[in-house]
Fold each of these.
Amino acid sequence: SKKPVRVAVTGAAGQIGYALLFRIASGEMLGKDQPVILQLLEIPDEKAQNALKGVIMELEDCAFPLLVGIEAHSDPMTAFKDTDYALLVGARPRGPGMERADLLAANAQIFTVQGKALNAVASRNVKVLVVGNPANTNAYIAMKSAPDLPAKNFTAMLRLDHNRAASQIASKTGKAVAGIEKLAVWGNHSPTMYADYRFATIDGQSVKTLINDEAWNRDVFLPTVGKRGAAIIAARGLSSAASAANAAIDHMRDWALGTNGKWVTMGIPSDGSYGIPKDVMFGYPVTCEGGEYKIVQGLEIDAFSQECINKTLKELTDEQDGVKHLL
Ligand code: NAX
């Protein structure tokens, strides 16, 4: 049987954590033959640590055959020790009266500390996924704080946007979501993301031809996907959690186990592809094989797409400029 791998999860007592940990432990992320050790991080606050204890009791009570160890931590330096995978979910939410700059600064603080801890103690091959918002910029900060780890090991979660876009396309065309290939989401995990179905097929047919409605793309599809998080908060009174956890599972599983040529979306440090400045943490269409992702190359960027990409890029470079002095 396989040697256990270490999976660190931060914000483990939060809502996404509650929807995520049980699925990791049951083998949905890394495969039904891969034993895991969970290294869970929460803030030192007594309430959070108690809540974490409760989650651990429930994990124990599932008696998952693949779950061979569970640890509770309040310090990233111990939580990230030798970790092979790190899902950075915990972040500082925007409080009442908090300005955007305060939010960026509070998160810059968290992700600088966590990036340094990963740099110091994690496996040299650690695969890092940042979920906590602002996800792309937090991933950028962690990456910049970990100079001894390969930059490519740091990623941000755009998969929820990708899955949301796929679901909207399936419902518009009246076909099953499983039939969709070659969907791309460019840019920031924010309402500026650009979900792009120009190359997509569903059951082998061109999505663009099937829908054949530029106004729907611009006025319905993009705003619906971009504002889906807000729509869920309005309906549920809480932000998306199960769908976010599901996207995190999809992201890590595909990165670790491969996509068999299928396109997925990951936020990754740019290598300059499509004119995005190097190191900007940008959503790209990728394929994964052998534990590595590869950007889908050679896609034509038309005028409308370029405009959308420029807009989301501008937002990201502004965010990065806003935290530069903190790095
Ligand atoms: P919750 O507030 O339910 O849970 C967050 C948990 O993180 C809390 O238990 C808190 O104590 C902990 N935490 C805070 N700072 C920490 C630190 N420095 N170290 C360890 N733990 C820490 O939020 P939840 O709904 O679980 O969402 C978590 C994050 O995901 C938020 O930042 C949220 O904005 C973000 N999201 C990102 C999405 C994406 O697609 N990238 C979608 C869903 C979600 O909105």
Note: The chain has a mean pLDDT of 97.
Amino acid sequence: RAEIRGSHFGLGIRCLTTLGHFGFECLPTQLVNKSIQKGFSFNILCVGETGIGKSTLINTLFNTNLKENKSSHFYSKVGLKVKTYELLERNIPLKLTVVKTVGYGDQINKEASYQPVVDYLDAQFEAYLQEELKIKRSLADYHDSRIHVCLYFITPTGHSLKSLDLLTMKNIDRRVNIIPLIAKADSLSKNDLQRFKNNIMSELNSNGIQIYQFPADDEATAQANSSGLLPFAVVGSMEEVKVGKRMVRGRHYPWGVLQVENENHCDFVKLRDLLLCTNMEDLKDQTHSQHYECYRTSRLQKLGFSDMGPDNQPVSAQSYTDVINVLVSTPPHIEIRGVATQNIGDFQEMYEAKRQEFHNQCQREEEELKQTFMQRVKEKELTFKDAEKELQDKFEHLKRIQQEEILKLEEERRKLEEQIIDFYKMKAASESAQAQVCTNLKKD
Ligand code: GTP
């Protein structure tokens, strides 16, 4: 179908514009359809003190009541609660995994409070790496549990960051995209809030903590990075409150209503837009291309891999994964799927164990081959011996028959010779008798 747009330069040439979609211009539609069919997944880590408002904010962000029990303040160490939800928004499926700290900031000695978080992040990278290293990998169906974003809930003290905040963020900033949030921001006045934001940002900078940089593609995101918006001052609530004639989500106070989705009241809408509408894909990309890549490189380097070959030349364009695949695929019988077992924590140890296992298996097979070979040689020797004996017997038999024949012939010859002698004797006798007769006759 085409639309006639009028004459061209008045020459009567019609300019036609296509109305339908043809050719490869449909490529984006294909991608959209495929992605919708496959569904989306997003993994969020919420780090913050007990009762700081983590669950409420997640509920508010996804406008869903994800049932959660309150955590106790009496855990002896920090833990993590992992829950996966299947959400649907206008037929767009989202597999959302929320990981929340439990007991964070509740211990007297907070020195190792960040460690479970670090361990969890690394464990997800390790699981992905193990999947990548399998011979038969199924990354398309793999449930990728790597954390795409860490919402770090800062307690609204109005002063500065606590040493626990700095320590944790310092230890996870190379592993995850950190978005700092001032939780329960409704407890700070406008001036205090701005001052608090400035203090936090200068503390993060002076401690060299890398937080997620929103891609500065458009004005809003550029503003989020540069202006005083970060860290986002958020307020969460699933409560419906009446404001004038409208029902809004907010928190009702004796002095009025704080509207969660009012940009003059808090940064919730900006956070939701930047996190879910604009940058969800970028967060996932950064997780893979920056944080996971960093983990993978250091992991493979620890295993002794290098991009330089023995001649100190780069090892072609092959990735580490390909090198590993070549190496690990050399043993033909080893089931690499087993590599992913959770029990073997350390990859190097596991790799060595697999190599040893392969070596032992080779030796066993070589031994078995030797045994089989010897057995078959013995069997062949026996067969040959039997055949030789049979031949010998046949030969002996024929020889005996031949000798018997020779003897028989010899006997016959002897008999014939005797008969000839007898014959000559008789002949001679006859001849002499005949001569005697003739002589007698002549005499007579
Ligand atoms: P745990 O999972 O138990 O550690 O708690 P949490 O961090 O998930 O906190 P939760 O969302 O359960 O909120 C704890 C309390 O804080 C609840 O009473 C919430 O109503 C309240 N709360 C949550 N968000 C806000 C907020 O933005 N401002 C204020 N003032 N209170 C909030």
Note: Confidence is low (pLDDT under 50) at residues 1-8, 316-320, 329-345.
